Each structure stands twice: as C-alpha cells, then as structure tokens.
Amino acid sequence: MEDPQGILCADAGRVGDLVTEKGLVASKEPAPHVQLACSTQYCAFPVDRNALCVWSTEDPLYQPLTLRGHHEPITAVAFGNAVSPLLICSASRDYVIMWSLDECRQKALQGLTPRGVVVGTLLGKVLCLRLSPDDRVAAVCAGKQIFMLDTEVRFDLQGHRGVVTAAEFCPWQTHILISVSEDRSFKVWDHHMGSLIYNSSVLTASPLLSLVLDAENRQLVTGCANGQLWIFSLVEGHHYRCVTRVDLKKKRESFSRRIESRLCSLPGESQRTCTDGLGKGEEVEASLPVLGLAPCDLSLILRAECGGLSSENTTCLWIGSSVGLFIFNLANFELEAVLHYKDFRSLSIQVAGSCAVKSKAGDEKAICLLTSLFGRKIAMLEIHVAVLVRSQQRHNAGRDLSVLPRYRLPAAVKDQPLVFHSQVRSSGYWLACGFANHLSLVFRADLTGTPAVFSGHDGAVSTVCWSHDGRRLLSASQDGTLRLWSLRRAELVLCVGRDVFSKPVGSAQFYYIDTFILLSSGPELQLLTYHVDTCKDEIQRCVVCPSVPCLCTVGGALFLTGLSVNRVGTDLVLAAGRNRTLEVFDLNAGRSAAAILEAHSRPVHQICQNKGSSFTTQQHQVYNLFATTATGDSIKLWDLRTLRCERCFEGHPNHGYPCGIAFSPCGRYVASGAEDRHAYVYDVGSSTFSHRLAGHTDTVTGVAFSPSAPQVQSPCGRGSTSLPTRLSSCFLYLLAFVLVKSCLV
C-alpha cells in the first residue's frame, strides 16, 4: 500500500487528557481552504495537491490509503451516508470521482492501483460537495452553480449570484437541497424537479461559509465569515422564519466572563493555559469565521453534570473556526465549551484554514481534522469532549436549591371538577389590571359588563396581585404606597404610606398563603405582616406602619427590577436587579443562596415562575423552572437546580417597552407581549413561537392565561384589553387570574 509523501508522524504526541494530536501530515502544497471529510471510522483529506489520503481514526498507526486519479488539486472531499459500502467522493477542476473504500483497500492489498468512477468532468473549481441520504446523487457546488450528479449530470441548479460555498440534503425530506453562497443568501431546491422552492433575502454583509441542518428541531444553521450564526426554522408553516442571529465573538466573551473566576480543572500543561486563554479572549483575532458546523451530542454529559430537565434532549453543534472549536447549544443559544488552539502550544496547527469535526452519538470523544492557514500541515486531533465540558461547567451550582417543600406533599386529587362544591366559587372569574392613569380595574373574565374601579393611587399602578382566596387585591404604585382592596365591597381596607419605605415599591405580592406581603424597595427585599382593620374610619385605616427592617439586599443593585416567589410553601425568592444579576434568596436563612451574573444583556424587568395549579398535575421537577425577560433581549427559561439557562425564546420584538410574560398553568407554554401589536405563545420545547395572536392596536405590554378556559388575555399600550384568544391544545386551570399592566405614560 503506497504511503503519501510527507507523513511526519502518527500519534504525534499527547497534549493532555483534553486534546490528543493523533497524526500529522506535511503536504507538498498548502491546502488552506478545502472541504475536509470525517466519518466515525475514517478521515479524508488531499495531500500533495492531487492525491486523496484516507486515514483511520480508530488506529492512526494503520497504514493510510492513498487514492490517485485527479490531475488538478483536490478542493473538496465528502463521505457517503451508508456504512457499507462506504463511499467517498473527491472533486477537482478536472474530475469528480466516486470511490468505494472497501474495493479500493482490497485492490491496494493485492498490489493493484485503486480506481474510482468518474461522475463529472470539467465542472470548475468545486468548493463543496455532498452525497444524498441514499448515496445515489452528489450535489457538486462549482462557482455559482450546483450540479446534481448521478452517472451523469441530472440537473444544473442556477440562481445564486455568488460562489456556492456549502450545501446539505434535508434528512427528513430527501428531495430537498439547501445551499448557501457568497451572495449572502440561502436557497431551498427540489433537486428531483430541478426547481427553486425558496430564496432568502441577503442576510449579512459577509459571505456565508458553512451550513448544517438540525433534524431534531428542524432548523437550518448557517455561519458566515464575520463570526455570525443565523438559525432558521424549517418547520412546515413557519415559512423559513429566522429564529435568531448569534454573534460568536460576543458569546465567547460572555462565556469567558462567566468562568474567569474559576480555575479550569485541566491537568498538566493545559490547566494554566486554559484559564489564561479563556480570561483573555480579546487577544485572539477580532473575527471568528465559521469554517465548519457539525452535530455534537452532549445529552449524556449534560445529564450527568447538570441534571436539568431538558439536558437529555439538548441539541448542540460543533463550530469550527480559525482559532478554535466551540460547542454551541441550540436550545439556549449559549456556548457550552471553548477550545482555543493557542492554549495548547504543543499542537502543530495554531491557526486553521479548514476544519471538519465528527463525533459519535453518546461517545465522549470527537475527531477533528485541521489544515493550516499559513503552512502545509494537516493534523488529526482527538478531543475528549466530556473532559472539555466538565472543566468549564459550573460545579454543583444549584444542587440543593428547589422550590419543592422538604416535607411530603399530600396526594394529588385527580379527575375533579374546577368547583368542588356548589356554594364555593372557583377562580377564573375576574381579571385585574393596573393602569398608568392611577387606576386598577377588575373585569369579568369574559370582558362583559362594567369593570369595578379601584381609585386612590397618585401614580401609575406598577403591580397588582390577587390573594390566595381571591377576595382581596394588592396594588403597588409609583406614588410609593401599597394598598389592599376588598373585591366584594370594592373598597380600600389597608394602605401603607410612603414613610414606611425608603424608596418606591417596585413589586409586591402575597406570600405564604396571604400571611405576609413580600415586596421590593430599592435594592431591598422586605417582608411585611399586616392586619386588616374593620374600622370604617378612612384615616384610621390608612395607618402609618413602623419602619420595616430589610430582609435581604441584592448586592451591587441600585434597584430591584423583578421579584417572584412560588406558591408551594418554599423559602426561596427570586429577585433581579439593575446590575443584570439574578439572585436566589433563602428567606429562612435571611441570605442569598445563589446568584447568576449577567443573566441578560439588559436588566430583567420580570421573573415568572411555573407555579402550576391545584387542578392540574405536573412533574415535581417542573416547578423548578422559571422564565425571565428583559427589554431588547430574549425570554430565557432557567432551571433553579442547575442555575442554567435551558432554553431561549426568540421572535417577539421588544426593543423599547417592557413586555410581560406568563406561564400557562399546564406548564407547556410561555406567552409574551410584543411591540408589533401581537401576543406570542411559545412551546417550552421549541425556541420559536408556535402561535402569533393578533387583534391589538398598540404594544402588548402584558399577558395572562385564563385558569378556567383555554384562552390567553393581553392588554395593549393604550389601556384596552383584548377579547380572549383560544388555545385549543392547552389545559388551563389556576387558582387566581392576574394580569399585570406595565406602567406606560
């Protein structure tokens, strides 16, 4: 079997338990920008301009196979999808050749020259090629055209205005081909008919370089030369909507800040370099071109390390760039791990020109094939994914935190109507709204009749909250007062004046089955006990309470912007400050239990917990989920036990107004207001919206689910409240139905 010239070494040397350089090749000619190929057993790359080298990833000492047949430099290589026979396709300006790896190896062992089948000739410079799921058709991207090859040219797909840089067959619709180009757009083709299905607009100022399709979530992910990722939904009916756009450089900087205070637990040489490299990400080049994208299975690793509810179904991607590798989470749009080549100085390649990554499902190792940008080297790396991820994860962040009570919960009552007794009124009949005109209104849930008016505040009403029994309403205002109202008599029963609080009350709610009132005043959390006086004297009723001691203070926050507590008797309270920090307070201990720095790019204006319902049953662990939202940012879904963002919800515009969010009582949906006069409903298992509800005439500032009917309510910026909108697939039962109106002047 002929050896390729320039083989320097196999098993070139260990760089630590994190990365192993399994092999290194020096080619006669540099090949910085070529399409490389990796499979679970082999990797393939061009050497010496026109020779194809196939290397075993399982045993690099096994003699490599060299295939010759091209006269021009090889520019693209791709493996087939079938395990047996394993096909490999190579392309140059002169030929596109299909090789059967088993036949070629057998001929080489017999001393014969392996031969492939020429399926295309003189197509031009090929930058990308892909084989269809059944390996019968090859998509060859040459210049601005895509040639569909079998034993001859079947179709010539034309439409791109720039060089086609990547293409992928759709795994769940085999007749669909998607391509990206230097014209900065992507196109969707029916390659059976040779027709164009969809043509995107220009996405960015830089060329699109790479492409991958996520079959589980049915999404398209493309990367461009300026380090941006664009994610689009391919779900039927979504019309190729953009899910989100990610700046890889900003994500890397954010990731570095999150872990810079912790020492990376890497052995040997890499322990020091990992800490230094991650903490000084600005020293790396400004742009991070996305050279390659590949699936990455972290389900077993994240489940073992984090134990989050969605870790088992998490989909991740390998992102190959010129300076390193990144593991990107498609659920929360955050980086799970970063590997910079420069942090491992024993690696032969520090700046890559091309990159290909392959990892088995459930395997803790991955193979990475690199070509040097400035040299003639080609290296094969083995990456220990489990070690990489574990070294950069938050250890035992929220292991002991849970909203579930320590004692055994009573058995759930199943299959009972909403009203247990004919003389007991259930919840869901009333809708409370706070307005900027100093009023609080209580409507019937069906929005019929005349609302009850609660007047008395001298400022915009910032918070309204129902009591546990639904008989009283708590309101807080920018005038600095806190008022308690009787719903039955539509009158004030308690007023706490401005002198009690050092700063205006930001938010307030009942706590511990109406025993206390929990509120935020400036950076402080305060817990009030109260007594409703039956005295009819208005002066005596609006008592001046003694000063209230501070319960907890959010460190570094000038003002608390969000507050939330669950209803299941927990001691944990969630708070957010203007310093963009989320903090978990243990009221029993009177101290902070955990903190999440830089939870959003802007201060959080609402925290919403999955409080469930007495009339529906959820898994106990689901109650540990909570959502946060900030102006100009996405909605983030968190798991209290891990303090991880499990998913981001993108798609609703909220650039200038604080739009409210709400959990459905069944826990399956999160609803949000938006500035485009719509309410958006997200399924917690998807990052893009499932329903877009129209009908408003202004910005939708708040949303709330009905506890007794499958519907959602939402007010808009002009103070009106829309008619209920039905969600046919959602169970919605809850003890109280509250709608918080944002303070808009």
From TrEMBL:
Keyword Protease: no
Family matches, as SMART domains: WD40
UniProt GO cellular component terms: nucleoplasm
InterPro entries registered for this protein in UniProt: WD40/YVTN_repeat-like_dom_sf (IPR015943), WD40_repeat_dom_sf (IPR036322), WD40_rpt (IPR001680), WDR27 (IPR042411)
Residue spans of the WD repeats: 157-199, 454-495
Keywords annotated in UniProt: WD repeat
UniProt-listed PANTHER family: WD REPEAT-CONTAINING PROTEIN 27 (PTHR44525:SF1)
Protein's recorded name: WD repeat domain 27
Organism: Ursus maritimus
Top-level taxonomy: Eukaryota, Metazoa, Chordata, Craniata, Vertebrata
Gene name of the record: WDR27
